């Protein structure tokens, strides 16, 4: 089980701070996540902490609206403009795909209840 420690900005695995885990336990957690198990204890802790932070972010619900990425950006830079436009388009496509999937799931559930 994964938890954020209240007293420190560190993660807990199995009730222990990851920095307090044995190297063997760190390697097991990394292997479970398909990550490399080589390196010093400090490297293992850093790798696991980064992965746990990523998992935490991915577990958060996606926002309904992408923040305005152009706000405060150096819009004179053509590369930045293109990048931000691509990110906006990608977000819109993902949002539409999610909406369609949710609609299909609702239809499937309503059809399943009707039979």
From TrEMBL:
SUPFAM superfamilies: SAP domain. Pfam families: SAP (PF02037). InterPro entries: EJC-associated_protein, SAP_dom, SAP_dom_sf. One of its GO terms (biological process) is RNA splicing. One of its GO terms (cellular component) is ASAP complex. Gene3D superfamilies: SAP domain. Residues 18-52 form the SAP domain. It comes from the Eukaryota. GO terms for molecular function: RNA binding. This is SAP domain-containing protein.
């Amino acid at each position: 089980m994964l938890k954020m420690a209240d007293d420190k900005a560190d993660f807990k695995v199995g009730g222990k701070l990851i920095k307090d885990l044995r190297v063997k336990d760190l390697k097991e957690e990394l292997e479970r996540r398909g990550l490399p198990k080589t390196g010093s204890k400090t490297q293992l802790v850093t790798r696991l902490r980064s992965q746990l932070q990523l998992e935490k972010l991915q577990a958060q619900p996606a926002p309904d609206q992408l923040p305005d990425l152009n706000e405060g950006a150096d819009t004179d830079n053509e590369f930045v403009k293109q990048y931000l436009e691509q990110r906006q388009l990608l977000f819109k496509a993902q949002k539409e795909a999610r909406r369609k999937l949710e609609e299909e799931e609702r239809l499937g559930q309503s059809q399943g209840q009707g039979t």
